[in-house]
Design a protein that fits this description.
Blueprint (H helix, E strand, L loop, with lengths): L1 H54 L2 E9 L6 E2 L4 E8 L6 E2 L3 E7 L2 E7 L8 E8 L8 E2 L4 E7 L5 E2 L4 E8 L5 E6 L8 E5 L1
Parallel strand pairs: 6-7
Antiparallel strand pairs: 1-3, 1-13, 2-10, 3-9, 4-8, 5-6, 5-11, 7-9, 11-12
Length: 194
């Protein structure tokens, strides 16, 4: 009988080890499922953000300055105008999330969407053509818009000087427009791009 008691004790010990292994396997499976779910969620977010960065694009149609008959783009009196449209396949761009940055040899200014061109910190948007899904606070497919801003006081861009206008969307690539002013600016309007 002592022999049978030992067998029973070994059977209970084996059962306990088996139950412990099943519990450990269940916990490990739970951790793996939770980790896989978390990684899938993160990868979907990264994919969506990457797609927005790639597909959010602005096409610059034209860039010109006004009041340049004196041969200089003067800060405080002269205006810059950038005519833009949405790039092919691009998602709509919220104008309040779009910055316009103007860099020259004599200064730099950053402008936000606004309604007052004379503040030197805001750019004004006029829609030349409204797309079929036009929304005043957004640049959508089919829209053709002009961004106007006043060059900051103290900035002076003369003939044959390099300047850069950058359009910076919250999502998407920075759109730089590098230009060199013509060697003779004698007209009221000077076209800088294309």
């Amino acid at each position: 009988m002592v022999y049978n008691n030992k067998k029973g004790a070994q059977g209970i010990g084996t059962l306990i080890i088996f139950i412990a292994l099943v519990l450990v396997a269940a916990v490990a499976a739970g951790v793996l499922i939770q980790t896989a779910s978390s990684l899938q969620s993160k990868s979907l977010d990264v994919g969506r953000q990457s797609q927005e960065k790639i597909t959010t694009d602005i096409d610059v149609v034209q860039l010109f300055a006004t009041n340049t008959s004196d041969g200089v783009i003067n800060g405080g009196t002269d205006n810059m105008t950038v005519i833009v449209r949405l790039g092919s396949g691009s998602s709509a761009i919220k104008l309040s999330d779009l910055l316009v940055k103007f860099d020259s040899q004599s200064g730099s200014q950053t402008l936000v969407f606004g309604t007052n061109i004379s503040t030197e910190t805001e750019y004004l948007v006029n829609f030349i053509i409204n797309g079929s899904n036009h929304n005043a606070g957004y640049l959508v497919e089919g829209d053709l818009a002009e961004f106007q801003f006043q060059v900051e006081t103290g900035t002076s861009v003369g003939e044959s000087e390099s300047t850069t206008v950058r359009l910076i969307a919250k999502n998407g690539a920075v759109k730089p427009i590098d230009v060199t002013t013509p060697p003779a600016m004698v007209e009221t309007t000077t076209y800088l791009f294309p």
